[in-house]
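cron nightly-structures :: item 1 of 1
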Amino acid sequence: MTTSRWSVPGGVVGLATVAIAGAVGPLAGQPDMSQVEIRTIELEHDLFMLMGRGGNIGLSVGEDGAFLIDDQFAPLTGKILAAVAAVSEEPVRWVLNTHWHGDHTGGNENLGAAGAMIVAHENVYRRMNPAEFAGLVGRSNQAPRGALPVVTFDSGVRFHWNGRHIEVTHIGEAHTDGDAIVHFPRANVFHMGDTFFRGRYPFIDVDSGGDIDGVIAAANFVLERSSEGTRIIPGHGELASVDHLREYRDMLETVRLRVAGLVANGRTADQVVAAAPTADLDAVWGDNPERFVRAVYRSLAGS
């Protein structure tokens, strides 16, 4: 299938007619994920969260076709499509990437070859396609042409699909510089991508434009639009509530404040790490605290 790349500066995407073929097998050179199982969590009769290996997937199904949020790794495409087929007879027509990292975009080439339209923020396209953007600053990898988004947006985009209004917002520089948060208003559900790691310190990809203040802003963006019944799909971890997100935001603000004080006193990155600003938090959040502290330091010190 041949498609052209569209740019959507913040408009509305409606129905599209896309022919979709069967599942595409794993790509050569990918790690063995034969033991990975895809777990399906029902949020509503037509809205689901899929967990496997890599970033959590959002799934809307209905007569228009399946709408996926992220697609994990290429070798899992067949299993993901089987999970979709278990809840819908319609093919995957859209894949929305919340950011560029491979554990969220690895299935793009397979699904694109099968006919799905890939959509993401413009910076995701840039980071996946540095060969076209010689002036790109920071870490990224060249993706195959078939894995690149064919629809990009700037500040946001809205889909009218499967009887839902699906609102997508670019959240600025947070986990990366291309993060999107997806809102299903009728279901009171958000997909936050890697702006939210439930129960653990986040990975802030400073080399891809990530910033601690943006991660805090992403949490506040969702909290301000939430109620006690809101359910949140994190980039990693189990399905979350508003309380989980609020605890996460409070932790982020606490660590930021502590590291900012050390930066203001002229401490180096190594000295900030040695000061152990997360020591009392590690028992709860302790997934690689040093990496997290260094990312917060770089965000604040600009190094």
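cron nightly-structures :: done
DSSP finds nine helices and 15 strands in the chain.
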